[in-house]
Write a structure and sequence with these properties.
Order of helices and strands: EEEHHHEEEHEEEEEEEEHHH
Number of domains: 2
Strand content: 25-35%
Oligomer: single chain
């Protein structure tokens, strides 16, 4: 076998070739190939990258690169990815990072001074704070339906939950990217607007109010309330009323941090819900 190449067989007996390389004591798999020569080429390219004779070392990114106007962040490393490269893009990123930063991650991460870049693919890159480095080093980001997930204890968890944003939170409604860049997941760049289910912050005649709605057959108004916590509790009250009167739907509950049971019960009892929703509950009760 040529250097860096190992013969392997599939369950059906088909022969293929696996490429790998050892660098700084780390054995790195480079992928599988149908021909020995291709696997050897992958090994040689990996050796060139790790030795520094291939793929230029990227410099720092100016703040302007963090704004839209092309591939967000992706311009930085993607432009150096060789055309027709035999190594997959994510493996190429892994090798370049290992060479430049002397630390190996299995996921396509490139470390900067106080943050790191995570490449979901050649055209899609996200910025994260350094505090999250070892989490994403061991949890692969999956993009599906416009949402970003990681596998966590056997479940697919939306990465927005790390910022206190509910599942399937809507950008611009439930949270915003402060600098306008939806690829910048730095903690200082994400501002939570609505942290509770069914609650939206509104302006009513120049006064800040919180609107609570609940989805039945379309959205039903629960009410308008002076505080976010009251609106969240009103939503809970509406969900409980519907469930107690036969509504077969699993509404998520809002949990109010720092509020004891007595305070919660007092607010729950005094809050009123809309006449329209009360009328709907009465119809449920009558069958």
């Amino acid at each position: 076998m040529l250097p860096g190449v190992f013969l392997a067989k599939k369950k059906n007996g088909t022969t293929y070739y696996r490429a790998s390389i050892t660098y700084r004591g780390k054995h790195i798999s480079l992928g599988s190939y149908p021909e020995e020569g291709l696997a050897h080429q992958a090994y040689l390219l990996a050796a060139d990258i790790l030795s520094g004779s291939s793929a230029s070392s990227p410099g720092d990114v100016s703040s302007a690169n963090f704004l839209h106007g092309g591939i967000s962040y992706g311009d930085h490393l993607s432009k150096d990815y060789p055309h027709g490269c035999i190594l997959p893009f994510d493996k190429w990123i892994v090798l370049v990072n290992f060479r430049d930063n002397k630390i190996y991650f299995k996921n396509p991460i490139y470390i900067k001074k106080r943050y790191f870049l995570y490449y979901v693919d050649q055209d899609t890159c996200y910025r994260f704070d350094a505090d999250d480095l070892f989490f994403y080093a061991s949890h692969k980001i999956i993009k599906r339906g416009g949402h970003l997930f990681v596998s966590y204890y056997g479940m697919q968890v939306n990465i927005l939950s790390r910022y206190g944003i509910k599942n399937y939170g809507v950008a611009g409604k439930d949270y915003i990217f402060v600098n306008g860049d939806d690829h910048d997941f730095s903690y200082h760049n994400i501002k939570v607007i609505n942290q509770y289910h069914g609650v939206t912050k509104i302006q009513n005649r120049g006064e800040t109010m919180y609107l609570a709605k609940i989805h039945i057959n379309g959205d039903y108004l629960v009410g308008k309330y002076p505080s976010e916590e009251e609106a969240a509790i009103a939503y809970n009250k509406a969900a409980l009323l519907l469930k107690n009167h036969g509504m077969d739907k699993n509404y998520p509950q809002n949990f109010i941090d720092g509020m004891d049971e007595i305070a919660y019960a007092s607010i729950f009892q005094r809050l009123r819900i809309s006449k329209k929703l009360n009328a709907y509950v009465e119809r449920l009760q009558k069958g």
